[in-house]
Amino acid sequence: MNNYPTITIDLIVDRSTCRDVLRGTIHAILFHRSFGTVKPRTFEVLDVTMPGISDIQTEQLVNDKIDIFWKGIDIGASKRGQIVVTFSEKRPKKSWFQVYMGEEDVPWEQWIINAEVRQPPDRERASFESTLAATLTKSIFTMITYTTSEKGRAAVPLITDATGISPFPIRITVKIGGVEVGL
User: For labelling, which of 42, 48, 114, 169 has a CA lying 20 to 30 Å from the CA of 21?
Assistant: First the structure.
């Protein structure tokens, strides 16, 4: 059992919006958990404005993980997957006799994006997109509500290094059918 908060976002997407929805959602999570100086950017997904980070390394990381997700969904039997964003802090790792053994990443928060790819019939497209837009709006509201809450603020460890976009290691993993892919 994890002793850190886990926030779950459930999305049902179609093939045409999958990449944009996932990109916007991951960027919004990273934006709300960035503690350094960031150059903001926005993503328009189904008439929902989502915040993001304009940073080459961040954009490359997000795009790589979305490509891995897409390839896993495209070639696999399962049309469901997860993208897990984990924020950690570096702590000294000690051995049995309190001897310093380097550093380890200790998670302090995790965001799980459960995504299912469906292809709605053409006659239901407008309803599907409207529902997805409402889900994205609710997801943004969840991010804002959680990160500004007392519980969300208390989860953040002491910031000891103020360089870069985030003073904490960020790990993004992709799981398709419960199996981690793209290692």
Answer: 169
